[in-house]
Amino acid sequence: MIIIRNGTLVDGNGGPPVPRGAVLVDGERIVYAGPETNAPPYAEAEAIDARGGTIMPGLVEAHFHPTYFNVAALEDLDIKYPVEYVTLLAAANARLALECGYTAARSGGSLFNIDVWLKKAIQEGITPGPRLAASGREICGVGGLMDWNPDYRRIGMEGLVLLVNGPNDARAAVRKLVKDGVEWVKTYPTGDAAAPDTNDHHTLCMTFEEMHAVVATAHNHHLKVTGHCRATEGINNALRAGYDAIEHATFIDDEGLDLMLARDVPAVPALQFEWASIEYGKDWGMPQRVIDGHKETLEGGAESARRILKAGGRLGMGGDYGFAWTPHGTYAKELTFFVRYVGLSPLEVIRCATRTGAEIMGRGDDFGTLEPGKLADILVVGADVVADISVLEDRSRFVAVMQGGKRAT
Questions:
Q1: Where are the beta strands (DSSP E) in 197-322?
Q2: Predicted confidence pLDDT, tens digits, the chain (409 residues)
């Protein structure tokens, strides 16, 4: 047994912190979480001293791209490295995420089919990393956000996306992913400010019929569907089609909010990426019109995130990390950003980054909060996280990262 003590307990449910808290672990599961004075006898247990800091659930990165290798342009994903090298980079990024306190993650799209095999390698102990919900190649309409190679170049996008042109193509694309073994199907219903020459973030990249075909086929095979949704109509179409999550939900309107709440569909806004694009975009050659688009996206996305949470909706924390200005290893900047810029409380953000993240993965009964019976995925920080959430950005402040009752770091 292991006893974690001498810290404030933040259980991930959003309630008040418990001073002088303790968590007792037996094997891979939690058997007690609460005030230390009420803990069962633990004289024989191995002790972990939280040093007066915080005992909290392991973090969940709800939009993880381990195969993105800190690129300066989307095009780099298509042409820069072969699959063998990207696989090695993905394994290194998975290890880094775990070291950063992220004990679980949901893939937001993968080059080739690396994430499925990365998940297997993590499960079998070949390489360390977060518990992973795997996606595969993303589905995009021809000429959409992720289809930038003109036909005359005769270059396909086989390792990055599956291009569709109509419902039949959409069904075929999902069936390919079924064979690959994915859990989540990632699509691109709308555009983005990052690609103004193709479309902007108000443009639709998939028809409703294509989106509906994706969902019907995926759900038939017990897969979940999410989508890069910024434009209002794209958000509404995705929700009408039966999407299981919405990435970004940038310009949600009243109709979209009602649809989201009716089915309790979570959203993952990913906003620190927008701020970083504005702040550092010129350093990486980003045109001013693109930076201006990110400003609009940031303002709209922050307002939408506030509206969703205030209305009783659910937000996951995940940030599209893996770009030059949002490199792997800086995931917790998303949490600080939501407190300091978006205006959420630290306890709200922690709940989004733990309990809601686990729920998005479909594993809310397994982890995400510190409760008896759940897997002992625990982050121990030698500082007061509620007083200053930015300490989660500093791995040197971590006392322990535990995954299934074992110290990962």
A1: 224-229, 246-248, 267-268
A2: 999 999 999 999 999 999 999 999 999 999 999 999 999 999 899 999 999 999 999 999 999 999 999 999 888 888 789 999 999 999 999 999 999 999 999 999 999 999 999 999 999 999 999 999 999 999 999 988 888 777 776 666 778 899 999 999 999 999 999 999 999 999 999 999 877 565 578 889 999 999 999 999 999 999 999 999 999 999 999 999 999 999 999 999 999 999 999 999 999 999 999 999 999 999 999 999 899 999 999 999 999 999 999 999 999 999 999 999 999 999 999 999 999 999 999 999 999 999 999 999 999 999 999 999 999 999 999 999 999 999 999 999 999 999 999 999 8
59-331 and 2-58+367-407 share a CATH fold: no
Token pair listed for 312? 């009783």
For the chain, the structural domain boundaries read 2-58+367-407, 59-331
Its pTM stands at 0.96
Can you give the C-alpha Rg of the chain in angstroms?
Answer: 21
Alpha-carbon span 180 to 199, nearest angstrom: 30
Q: What's the Cα-to-Cα distance from 171 to each of 90, 139, 240, 361, rounded to whole Å?
A: 28, 10, 18, 23
CATH number of 59-331: 3.20.20.140
Residues 114 and 74: their CA atoms lie apart, in Å, by 18
Instruction: Please give the structure tokens belonging to residue 294.
Output: 């990110």
Instruction: Give Cα 286 to chain centroid, integer Å.
Output: 25
Q: Which of 251, 368, 246 is nearest to 315 (CA)?
A: 246
Assess contact for 97 and 129: CB atoms under 8 A: yes
Is the four-CA dihedral 283, 284, 287, 293 of positive or negative sign? negative
Q: What is 2-58+367-407's CATH number?
A: 2.30.40.10
- Residue 265 backbone zone (phi > 0: left; psi -120 to 50: alpha; other: beta): beta
